[in-house]
C-alpha cells in the first residue's frame, strides 16, 4: 500500500468569524477523521517520535488504539505517560518535537500527533473517563508549589505511585500559566483545563489555593513542621520584563503578563460583562515575537472596538520563536506584522496616556549566542506608529519570593533555581523544575521536568530493593 503523505486537515473557524469571538479556533477531529489520520502511522519498530517528546509518550501505542476504534483504550494508554492529553494536544509545539521526529517528515507531512492526542483527551473528558490505576499507599507526603503544567504533571505522577500529594497555588484558581496565560480560543478553561485538573483531584491529589508559599508557610516549615518528605518547586517564571525605554510608565502600556492575566484569569474576554474589562482603545501595538506576543495580539484583536493590531518584532519572520500555526492564524485574522522593527520610546498625551510608539528599523547581522541573527539599528530610520495601548511581550523573569524565603536555596545570576541532573536543588529534599529552572519554555518541556522529578523523588523515597 502506498504511503499517505497528506495529513487529515484540522477543522477550524474561518478567520472572518473567529476574529470576533473567543471560541476555539481549531475544532478538533471527529472519530472518522481521527481514524483516517491514525491509519497513516507506520508503527515503526523504532518509533523516533517518542524520542522527540519531552514526556516520552508511547505515541504509536495510543494511536494503534484509535486505529482499532478503541478510544477508551487510547485514553488508558496515553494516560500512562501524560496526565493532561487534552491540554498538550492544544498548546504543545508538536511540529518541532514529536512530529518533527516522525519518519514521514522525510517525504511528506508527519502524523498529526497533536491532533490525535487532543482527540483522545477530549474523548476522556466527554465520557468522564477516570484514570485507571492501582497503587499501594506510600507513607510519605509530597508538597508541590505551583499548579502549572510542571506542578500538575509531578502531582499526577506521584499520586499514581501512591504518594499523598498536596499542590499549593498562590492564586485563587488552579492551572498556573495554563489558566492565566493562554487565551480561551486556544485552551478553553471550563471545557478543558478544569476537567483535566478534576481528573487529578479524583485520583486523590489535594489542592490548596490562595496559598502563597513563602508567606503562608516557608519551604523549611513544610519539611520540618508540616510532615512533608519532599518539596517540588514549580512556580514558573511570571515576573515581566521591560525594555527600560522612555514612556513605559504611561497609562495603557501593559506587560503581557498583566494583560493576559486580566483577559483569562479575570475573564476580561467577556467584554463589558466582565467585572474588570481591559481598556485598549481602537489601535493596539504588541511588542515581541513569541507565543505570548501572538496570544496577546490575537486576544486584543477580539476585544470589541479594536480596529487595528500591530505586532512589532525586531527580527524577521524566520527568527520568530512563535509556533508557525499561531503566526498563520494571526496573519489570517488580520494582525499587522512589522518585522525588523523595535520601539525606542513611547510618546504620551497631556493626560499621560500612550499615543504612539517611536520605532526604528533594524537589519540582521551574524548570529548571536541564541543562534538567531543579531538585529542592529539602521541609522536615521525612526518613525512612529500611532497606538492607543501597548502590550510588551519580550519575556519573563523568575519570581523571587521562594528564593528570598528559603535560606540556602541556590539561584543563578538571573534568579532561576539551580538544580543538578537529578532535579535536586542545593537543599536536601527540595526539587525544582519547569520555567523556574529553565526560564520561559514550552508547556510540554515543563511537563517533562515534572514527570522526571516525580520519578526521581520516588526512587529516593522508595528505592527498589
Helix and strand layout, with pairings?
Blueprint: H1 15-18, H2 31-38, H3 48-51, H4 59-67, H5 71-78, H6 85-91, H7 113-126, E1 141-145, H8 149-160, E2 164-168, H9 177-180, H10 189-203, E3 206-208, H11 219-224, E4 230-233, E5 239-240, E6 253-255, H12 256-264, E7 283-287, H13 291-301, E8 308-312, H14 324-333, E9 336-338, E10 341-348, E11 354-367, E12 373-377, E13 383-386, E14 389-392, E15 396-397, H15 401-404, E16 430-432, H16 435-438, H17 443-461
Could you characterize what this model shows?
By secondary structure, the protein is of the alpha/beta class. It has three domains: 15-126, Alpha-helical ferredoxin (Fumarate Reductase Iron-sulfur Protein, Chain B, domain 2, Orthogonal Bundle); 141-238 and 398-461, FAD/NAD(P)-binding domain; 240-396, FAD/NAD(P)-binding domain, CATH 3.50.50.60. Helices cover 32% and strands 16% of the residues. It has helices at 15-18, 31-38, 48-51, 59-67, 71-78, 85-91, 113-126, 149-160, 177-180, 189-203, 219-224, 256-264, 291-301, 324-333, 401-404, 435-438, 443-461, and strands at residues 141-145, 164-168, 206-208, 230-233, 239-240, 253-255, 283-287, 308-312, 336-338, 341-348, 354-367, 373-377, 383-386, 389-392, 396-397, 430-432. The strands form four sheets. The protein has a five-stranded parallel sheet. Helix 6 packs antiparallel against helix 7. The protein starts with 14 loop residues before the first helix and ends with a helix. The model has no long low-confidence stretch (mean pLDDT 94).
